[in-house]
Backbone:
């Protein structure tokens, strides 16, 4: 292994890591040598991922927290820094979507988003990154080092009908990442984003649903398959490592070519 990618001695916190892409990132960081703390909305999922980190020979920690609220994350920060130690890497990976039209129309049979839906999706996909950086930013800035990775989506580049709130939040996350990268560059803190394409969580799907999606959805992707969470994790390892010491303010798509369509 090239020493430039070695994360031995580093510590990382991955929010929203109870499953899926967040879990893939947490485990890849651990494989690269980092001690990893994970948060999820519930204790059980976070604990399972922390146990898998420990099984890889690293120190794993788990906490339940609402990553979209400053008060909740601020209450957690003291525990994170006390148990995990000085933080080197922060991955803001909370996200979800609700399909729905912006307004009803005469021929619109789609579900129409409510005001609550809009605020929920903006908070889950955009506000959560502000919260993580707002709470842990002073720690990075005081140390004058660190790496932040915001997990975005191909929707930041390729919009779709019925996904306006999600696309707006992810596009906003791109500009948030770029602006914060400029704000924190004088302190030696790098800020980047990863924009995944289709990464369905196989652990959350029945065998029947998984097979159906393989047959109907995967062929529409230029590379002909879904992505694996570990692949996003490997990109996160790169962005967290010395190999990416000259990379900041970037949103990197990992989507099998989907944004090229």
Residues:
């Amino acid at each position: 292994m090239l020493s430039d990618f070695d994360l031995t001695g580093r510590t990382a916190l991955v929010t929203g890591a109870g499953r899926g892409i967040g879990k893939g990132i947490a485990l890849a960081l651990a494989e690269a040598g980092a001690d990893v703390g994970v948060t999820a909305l519930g204790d059980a999922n976070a604990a399972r991922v922390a146990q898998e980190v420990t099984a890889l020979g690293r120190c794993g920690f788990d906490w339940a927290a609402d990553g979209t609220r400053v008060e909740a994350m601020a209450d957690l920060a003291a525990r994170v820094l006390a148990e995990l130690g000085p933080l080197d890497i922060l991955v803001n990976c909370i996200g979800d979507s609700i399909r729905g039209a912006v307004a009803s129309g005469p021929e619109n049979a789609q579900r129409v988003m409510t005001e609550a839906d809009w605020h929920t999706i903006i908070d889950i996909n955009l506000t959560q990154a502000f919260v993580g950086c707002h709470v842990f930013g002073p720690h990075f800035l005081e140390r004058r080092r660190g790496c932040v990775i915001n997990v975005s989506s191909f929707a930041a580049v390729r919009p779709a009908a019925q996904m306006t709130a999600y696309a707006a939040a992810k596009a906003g996350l791109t500009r948030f990442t770029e602006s914060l990268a400029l704000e924190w560059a004088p302190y030696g803190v790098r800020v980047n984003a990863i924009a995944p394409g289709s990464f369905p969580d196989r652990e959350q799907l029945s065998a029947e649903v998984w097979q159906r999606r393989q047959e109907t959805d995967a062929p529409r992707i230029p590379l002909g398959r879904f992505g694996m969470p570990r692949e996003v994790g490997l990109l996160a390892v790169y962005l967290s490592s010395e190999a990416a010491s000259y990379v900041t303010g970037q949103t990197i798509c990992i989507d099998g070519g989907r944004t090229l369509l």
